[in-house]
Design a protein that fits this description.
With about 210 residues, the protein is α/β, with parallel strands linked by helices. It folds into two domains: about 40 residues; about 160 residues, Vaccinia Virus protein VP39 (Rossmann fold, 3-Layer(aba) Sandwich), CATH 3.40.50.150.
Length: about 210
C-alpha cells in the first residue's frame, strides 16, 4: 500500500516538475498551452483553445450583411476572430478590440499589425466611453466572445443594454457562447434575435445575432 502511495506521489512530483520546466502555466503566446495558462491565471478566461475555423466562419457570416465600417470586439484573446474580421472590413474601417486580460491584449498588439486595429486593455462595460474616446459615435457591429455565463444576471443585463445603445440603428450584436444564458436578455433589448449552433468547436458554441 505504501509502495503504491509513494509511486503515485513520485508520478505527481514528476508531472509537476515537467509542467514547471515546460512553463505550462506561464503564459506564452507562442505556446500551444497559452489559453490553458491564461485560464489558470485569470478566472475570467473561459476558453481552453482558440475558436475553431468553423465557429469563426459562422460569426463572420453573421457579420457580412452589415458591411460594417466600425466594429467593436469584446474579448478578442489572441486574435483568431480579429484577423478574420479585418479581412472582411473596408480599407477605411476601424476595429476596436477590447480585452480585459492584459496578457492577451499585449499578445494581440504584437501579433497583428494593422492600422485599422485598435487594441485596448480594458472592460467592455465601458463601450460607450470607449467609442467616445475614439471619436466614434456608434458601431455598425459588436462581436463578443466573453463568457456572459460568468456574469451575474444584473451584469448581463447591463452590458447588453450598453451594447445596444452603442450600436447604430440596424446594427448587429453577434455573441458566440457555450450556454444559452443570453437568449432572454437579448430578446428584452433587441427586436430580432437569431440563434445558431456550431458543434465543430471545443466546446460547441451558440452564435446569437441580435439586430437593433
Amino acid at each position: 500500500m505504501k509502495k503504491s502511495a509513494d509511486a503515485a506521489k513520485g508520478i505527481a512530483i514528476r508531472i509537476k516538475d515537467f509542467m514547471k520546466e515546460r512553463k505550462v502555466f506561464r503564459y506564452d503566446s507562442d505556446s500551444p498551452f497559452s489559453y490553458v495558462a491564461a485560464m489558470f491565471q485569470d478566472k475570467g478566461v473561459a476558453a481552453v483553445t482558440p475558436s475553431s475555423k468553423y465557429l469563426v466562419s459562422r460569426v463572420i457570416r453573421a457579420l457580412e450583411p452589415v458591411h460594417a465600417r466600425v466594429v467593436v470586439e469584446y474579448g478578442p484573446a489572441e486574435g483568431v476572430m480579429t484577423r478574420r474580421i479585418l479581412d472582411r472590413m473596408p480599407k477605411d474601417g476601424r476595429l476596436i478590440a477590447v480585452e480585459l486580460n492584459e496578457q492577451f491584449a499585449q499578445a494581440l498588439s504584437r501579433s497583428v499589425r494593422d492600422e485599422r486595429l485598435i487594441v485596448l486593455h480594458g472592460d467592455a462595460s465601458r463601450v460607450e466611453a470607449i467609442l467616445a474616446e475614439q471619436g466614434v459615435g456608434e458601431a455598425d457591429a459588436i462581436i463578443s466572445g466573453i463568457p456572459f455565463s460568468f456574469f451575474s444576471p444584473e451584469e448581463r443585463r447591463s452590458l447588453v443594454a450598453k451594447t445596444r445603445t452603442a450600436l447604430r440603428h440596424g446594427g448587429r450584436f453577434i455573441a458566440y457562447q457555450c450556454t444559452t444564458h443570453l437568449i432572454p436578455v437579448l430578446k428584452q433589448h433587441f427586436h430580432k434575435v437569431h440563434t445558431e449552433l456550431e458543434l465543430r468547436n471545443l466546446p460547441p458554441h451558440f452564435v446569437f445575432t441580435a439586430v437593433k
